[in-house]
Amino acid sequence: MTFSVHGLAVSRGIAIGRAVLVASSRADVAHYFVEDADVRSEIHRVRDARNTVVEEISRLQRDLPADAPHELAALLDVHLMLLQDEQLISGVKGWISERHYNAEWALTTQYEMIARQFDEMEDEYLRERKADLEQVVERVLRAMKGVASPVQHRNQGVRKQQKELLHDDKLDVPLVLVAHDLSPADMLQFKQSLFAGFATDVGGRTSHTAIVARSMDIPAVVGARSASQLIKQDDWVIIDGDAGVLIVDPSPIILAEYGFKQRQGALERERLNRLRHTPAVTLDGQKVELLANIEMPEDTSGAIQAGAVGVGLFRSEFLFMGRIGNLPDEEEQYLAYRQAIEGMQGLPVTIRTVDIGADKPLERHTKAQEAQLNPALGLRAIRWSLADPPMFLTQLRAILRAAAHGQVNLLVPMLAHASEIRQTMSLIDHARATLDNKGQVYGPVKLGAMIEIPAAALTLKLFLKYFDFLSIGTNDLIQYTLAIDRADEAVAHLYDPCHPAVLRLVADTIAECNAQGKGISVCGEMAGDVNMTRLLLGLGLRCFSMHPSQILSVKQQILRADAGKLQPWAQEVLASEDPASLL
Question: Which domains does the chain have, with CATH numbers?
Fold first, then answer.
């Protein structure tokens, strides 16, 4: 029966496909199709891993001391029984044989289906066995990681294989991802994946999950509450990223309607692509810079393809995520930054120093972050960097060295205090001195600060005394001005880019920078929102930085605008009690 689930529209477009449910704890499991010749070996991989776990548990049973609690022995018996459960075994074989899922994907898919059956059981004791099943599956997954297999690690071959298999008629099944939540690190796992779209139970319009979805340019809905409970594995689902709606088990008529919308969206993208090489100039001759926000060095190809005239925000923290062991050292970071600089073919690249914390945790610090009462107000961004000078100095040296290969701007996030600014400047000088002492080549950088805390927006003269340019991070500026957690769907309706206080802080920052002849850009989500383009132009903004997928839509608005005529209107919007009604 057809039903719909409502959430927040965060990445435009329509995706239609079968649902793949993924628990957040297993979001890093590989998802790819295997060829006919590999089906038997994939089944053997699961079998071998299961046998390894059976052996481990059997050994634990043999080694149990005589005085061990009876409950422990019984628990081990339950785990052995679950490992030998025919429904689990036959189900995994079916996903591999019939759908050509790889072994890990097949195992987690079957787990989700059985777990749902446990949830529906009336007996409390039986319901609680779901946790035992989860533990068993996790152990098998870990065992598979220890089983050598060329299929598991040949990433480049897998991507090629995916493309080939997706054009095979019997496997031509589009897929959409449904999860309770996905971290930014999880999202990176799916950046080159099979999925045509995704939906999560939690999240807000400017949560980093949503931001990465837009950078991937795939339809997405977040904050859909109980989507992962209502949608079953393999259900047909339509993700309407324009309306923020999921339609489950759609009728043929609804499918046909959304198929038409998909084709219309593709035609619109083709029309926008014709603007790629057109300079961004308003009707009255005002030149506007359209820059790209990127997460990884390889994203520069998308920025160039979209017609960006530089990178306005390289989120360097994505180099640090998803790492259980050591953080990237100086050489690894230097090579990554150099790759991004060279990828932009002489255009400027703005690298933001690591912005870790809140909804972008490091794996090795997860427990410490969970202990914080409010991570968004805790040790994050520049506060984190200043609390760990060796880590920060390593990054600064890498950025300075990479600057020898092109135009580089260094951007510092979340500054608020004069003492933080002075400490940051001192460490930059220290990094230069260290490179001088080693005789290593480095290049000049322009220094910039993010304006994302109201305290910073209200002390602009202090910031402009030290920095060459400023960049307004509207996502956090809105969050901190309105005291709203931007990742919390419960208060998402209060997250308002058009709140008079927010617009006043943005307007004053632009005006002060223009008055002092200092560079000013907006690099938050407001920059890529076509509903805000005319207002920002009217406020005097001439540098926008956004995800490459949004550049052409914003350029279209700029080409149709007369910036001079927008100035008096923008002042009316600022003075209004309800600015959104005038946009």
Answer: 1-23+149-258 (3.50.30.10), 28-147 (1.10.274.10), 271-582 (3.20.20.60)
